């Protein structure tokens, strides 16, 4: 049977750590320093029994090189690391074997009869640890063990060697044999200084082995101790200390010497002998105090990750990164341990030089949706990526993020990736999907968003389901635009929720709401209060968009109570009201809206839109909107009025555009003030045969020209009889033109007219008739700049391309002649 081989061979003092917390009294009692490592003296002999009798002890497999070997095994494939040292024939040694086997570390211990396995008292105070080591069997290691039948082949097959500095206190000859063989075979030998007392008191031993060392690892305290012992001019200058060490004589000249000095949570310094004047500093991603459990073994964990990466053929940069990850993992555990089950950190590492990193840094917009087929990424895979990134952002410069969150497991997948995506520079976030109803969304996602994204200005929710709470939105103080779409009646929703959310949002200018109470009724009547009473006098919206929904199959006589009327009073630019699945059958349907908006003299635009099965069956309801003083009124809702013969769309337009002029009384005395409409859009039916509502006639356009001088933009559908339906039914169009020209001139300011001619009413006109129509249009609207189809999609419709386009050309020719251009 062949002897197994391992690329990494480690040598050190195997120990069992006896770990206790809150050990301030022990430091004083045994004259210990809070962050130090020493060999036990006679005065420390009683500390081990003291710990067992008076403290709650945690037993952890330890020993510096053994800890590092387990760390290297963690990042390497199975059967990559083997370790040796001396233990006793006792239960402690068996516990060490079990721990090593679990973490993939092979061992070839020298078992020393009559000796106890070494122990290390670990006294933890805060984030510091004081180590007091009694080597016991560990210091009985015999050099002959290296040439034993079991160990010698392993040394011969290994490519890398790692020895802890503590081993030099008793086993210098064995360390020299191992390092000498490595140098002679051009293999890599790594030495860890381990503790300040090694260069202080074992300088001679260190001096013997340094010529064979390819990689030297230590921390800032150990570096300073070496510098002080060796007369370096500034012992605290780590770069100078490292440069001095890499410049020392070296046996194996096939590779440069590398010195690595860690500085805890601050950074790691690396200097190589081929570039001694170019030290590299690697920043550490610091953990919060809450994340740090125990710093014991962090340096060994770094060494294990670093050396394991070198064994795996990774670059120096990647090796440092792997060391940082292993150190961070260790300090979040009790003692020198690693997370279990095993996290494949380094083997799944996303290299800083990878094409993905370069691409990810350029991404500005992300749109994440569940896959259409199959399953998405498993939650644990997101966690592995997150662990690999160590808190760094996956797409660090993303500014716009859209996420569709499904239910169940899929939602948890998305929640897992959020910490990787919420960047400080994000300005826009769009959430949608059933997953928004999950309590985890309200209690985890939103608070995380508020905390991570101070630049967030635009936030959207679109969900169908029961409301779960959005209180964290109030913490997003820089929000300018908020869209809340919770499109279902919510039994537990109270109107107070909106007040609580809006109160802290002093920069909000745009608000979109589609959130509804049970049965669309608010029993508190809070929405009818004034903003000042609600503590919202600071809210100055520019645009407010709200949706009124009807209970299924029920006609209502007013807007649903879910519309926050108090916000309409202070909106300055535009109010968008959407009616969903709503039949407007009552003439007073819009009265609550009109009452509030009549108190808002600064509003510029009102838009009423219908979606779903919404329609207006009573045009008188729309007439009420004439009492609102706005510059633009746009109506985009289906009109079906059974009383159309008596109250046509033509009459609606006429009433809509009436205004007081000098010497003329308003045609509608119920209007309390003259209208100042500049833009009016009237809905049209794409299938006029299905609607009894009449379109605009020449008489309607004349009303616009003479009774609506403020109107600048008009969108309207034409009546089927448009071409022949003139005010004077007994006259021809040319006679009507003559009558118009003899009367007062039009002062209309209309600039654009968009029309829809569903019956192609002018299809049969001759060129001469077309010229007369063009002159009428030019007379009625002298400032008109363009006539266009109802929408861009109508450019190829016959009514436009075959007839109205020609009429528009003729009108412009008339205008040119009139102006004498």
Number of helices: 25
Q: How do the strands line up in the largest sheet? A: 17-18-19-20-21-22-23-24-26-28-30-31-32-33
- Kindly report the average pLDDT value: 83
Described by the principal axes of the CA atoms, the overall outline is elongated
C-alpha Rg (nearest Å): 41 Å
What is the share of helical residues? 25-40%
How would you explain this protein's 3D organization?
Pfam families: PfkB. Its EC number is 2.7.1.20. This protein has a 14-stranded parallel sheet with strand order 17-18-19-20-21-22-23-24-26-28-30-31-32-33. It has a nine-stranded mixed sheet with strand order 7-5-1-11-12-13-14-15-16, with helices on both faces. Strands 3-10-9-2-4 form a five-stranded mixed sheet. Helix content is about 30%, strand content about 20%. Mean pLDDT is about 85; it is low at about 345-350, about 645-650 and about 655-675. It has about 800 residues and is α/β, with parallel strands linked by helices. It starts with 7 loop residues before the first strand and ends with a helix. Helix 14 (about 380-390) runs parallel beside helix 15 (about 410-420), helix 15 (about 410-420) runs parallel beside helix 16 (about 440-450) and helix 21 runs parallel beside helix 22 (about 700-705).
List the helices and strands and how they pair.
Blueprint: E1 8-11, E2 15-20, H1 24-29, E3 36-39, H2 47-54, E4 58-62, H3 64-75, E5 81-84, E6 86-88, H4 91-102, E7 106-107, E8 110-112, E9 118-125, E10 128-134, H5 152-157, E11 160-164, H6 172-184, E12 188-192, H7 197-201, H8 203-209, E13 215-219, H9 220-229, H10 238-246, E14 258-262, E15 267-272, E16 275-283, H11 298-311, H12 316-330, H13 355-360, E17 365-368, H14 379-389, E18 400-404, H15 409-421, E19 428-432, H16 439-452, E20 458-463, E21 481-490, H17 496-502, E22 510-517, E23 543-549, H18 565-568, E24 574-580, E25 583-584, H19 591-597, E26 605-611, E27 615-616, H20 619-623, E28 632-636, E29 638-639, H21 649-657, E30 679-681, H22 698-707, E31 713-717, H23 733-742, E32 752-756, H24 767-780, E33 786-789, H25 798-819
Parallel strand pairs: 1-5, 1-11, 2-9, 3-10, 5-7, 6-8, 11-12, 12-13, 13-14, 17-18, 18-19, 19-20, 20-21, 21-22, 22-23, 23-24, 24-26, 25-27, 26-28, 27-29, 28-30, 30-31, 31-32, 32-33
Antiparallel strand pairs: 2-4, 9-10, 14-15, 15-16
């Amino acid at each position: 049977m062949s002897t197994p081989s391992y690329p990494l061979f480690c040598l050190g003092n195997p120990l069992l750590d006896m770990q206790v917390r809150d050990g301030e009294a022990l430091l004083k009692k045994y004259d210990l320093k809070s962050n130090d490592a020493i060999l036990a003296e006679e005065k420390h002999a009683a500390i081990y029994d003291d710990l067992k009798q008076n403290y709650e002890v945690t037993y952890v497999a330890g020993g510096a090189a053994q800890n590092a070997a387990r760390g290297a095994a963690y990042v390497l494939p199975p059967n990559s690391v083997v370790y040796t040292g001396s233990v006793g024939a006792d239960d402690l040694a068996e516990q060490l074997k079990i721990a090593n086997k679990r973490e993939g570390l092979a061992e070839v211990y020298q078992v020393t009869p009559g000796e106890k396995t070494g122990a290390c008292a670990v006294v933890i105070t805060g984030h510091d640890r004081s180590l007091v080591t009694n080597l016991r069997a560990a210091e009985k290691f015999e050099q002959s063990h290296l040439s034993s039948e079991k160990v010698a082949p392993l040394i011969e097959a290994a490519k890398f060697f790692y020895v802890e500095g503590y081993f030099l206190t008793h086993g210098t000859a064995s360390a020299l044999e191992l390092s000498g063989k490595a140098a002679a075979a051009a293999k890599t030998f790594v030495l860890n200084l381990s503790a300040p007392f090694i260069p202080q008191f074992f300088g001679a031993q260190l001096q013997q082995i340094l010529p064979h060392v390819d990689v030297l690892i230590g921390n800032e305290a150990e570096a300073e101790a070496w510098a002080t012992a060796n007369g370096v001019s500034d012992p605290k200058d780590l770069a100078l200390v490292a440069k001095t060490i890499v410049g020392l004589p070296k046996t194996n000249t096939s590779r440069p010497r590398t010195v690595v000095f860690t500085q805890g949570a601050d950074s790691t310094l690396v200097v190589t002998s081929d570039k001694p004047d170019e030290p590299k500093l690697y920043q550490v991603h610091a953990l919060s105090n809450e994340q740090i459990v125990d710093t014991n073994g962090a340096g060994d964990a770094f060494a294990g990750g670093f050396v394991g990466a070198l064994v795996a053929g990774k670059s120096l940069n990647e090796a440092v990164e792997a060391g940082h990850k292993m150190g961070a993992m260790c300090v979040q555990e009790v003692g020198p341990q690693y997370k279990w089950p095993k996290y494949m950190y380094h083997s799944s590492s996303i290299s800083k030089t990878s094409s993905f990193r370069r691409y990810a840094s350029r991404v500005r917009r992300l749109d994440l949706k569940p896959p259409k087929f199959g399953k998405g990424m498993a939650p644990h895979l997101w966690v592995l990526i997150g662990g690999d990134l160590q808190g760094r952002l996956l797409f660090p410069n993303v500014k716009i993020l859209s996420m569709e969150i499904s239910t169940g497991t899929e939602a948890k997948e998305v929640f897992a990736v959020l910490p990787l995506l919420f960047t400080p520079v994000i300005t826009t976030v769009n959430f949608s999907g059933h997953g928004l109803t999950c309590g985890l969304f309200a209690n985890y996602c939103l608070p995380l968003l508020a905390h991570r994204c101070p630049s967030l200005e635009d936030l959207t929710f679109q969900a169908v389901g029961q409301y779960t709470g959005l209180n964290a939105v109030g913490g997003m103080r820089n929000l300018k635009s908020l869209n809340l779409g919770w499109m279902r009646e919510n039994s537990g929703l109270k109107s107070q929720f909106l007040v609580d959310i809006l109160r802290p949002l002093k920069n909000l200018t745009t608000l979109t709401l589609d959130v509804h109470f049970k049965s669309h009724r608010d029993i508190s009547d809070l929405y009818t209060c004034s903003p000042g009473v609600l503590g919202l006098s600071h809210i100055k919206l520019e645009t407010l968009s709200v949706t009124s929904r009807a209970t299924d199959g029920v006609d209502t006589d007013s807007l649903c109570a879910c519309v926050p009327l108090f916000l309409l009073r202070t909106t300055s630019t535009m109010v968008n009201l959407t009616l969903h699945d709503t039949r407007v059958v009552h003439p007073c349907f819009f009265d609550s809206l009109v009452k509030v908006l009549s108190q808002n003299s600064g509003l510029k635009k009102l838009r009423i839109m219908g979606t779903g099965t919404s329609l207006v069956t009573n045009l008188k309801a729309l007439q009420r909107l004439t009492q609102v003083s706005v510059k633009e009124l746009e109506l985009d809702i289906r009109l079906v009025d059974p009383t159309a013969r008596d109250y046509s769309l033509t009459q609606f337009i006429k009433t809509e555009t009436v205004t007081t002029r000098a010497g003329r009384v308003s045609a509608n005395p119920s209007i309390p003030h003259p209208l100042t409409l500049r833009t009016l859009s009237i809905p049209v039916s794409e299938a006029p045969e299905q609607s009894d509502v009449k379109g605009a006639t020449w008489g309607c356009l004349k009303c616009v020209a003479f009774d609506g001088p403020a109107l600048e933009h008009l969108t309207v559908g034409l009546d089927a009889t448009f071409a022949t339906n003139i005010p004077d039914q007994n006259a021809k169009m040319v006679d009507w033109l003559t009558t118009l020209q003899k009367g007062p001139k039009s002062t209309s300011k209309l600039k654009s007219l968009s029309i829809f001619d569903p019956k192609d009413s002018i299809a049969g006109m001759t060129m001469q008739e077309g010229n007369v129509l063009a002159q009428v249009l030019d007379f009625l609207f002298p400032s008109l700049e363009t006539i266009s189809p109802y929408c861009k999609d109508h450019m190829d419709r016959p009514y436009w391309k075959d007839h109205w386009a020609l009429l528009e050309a003729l009108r412009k020719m008339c205008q040119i002649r009139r102006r004498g251009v």
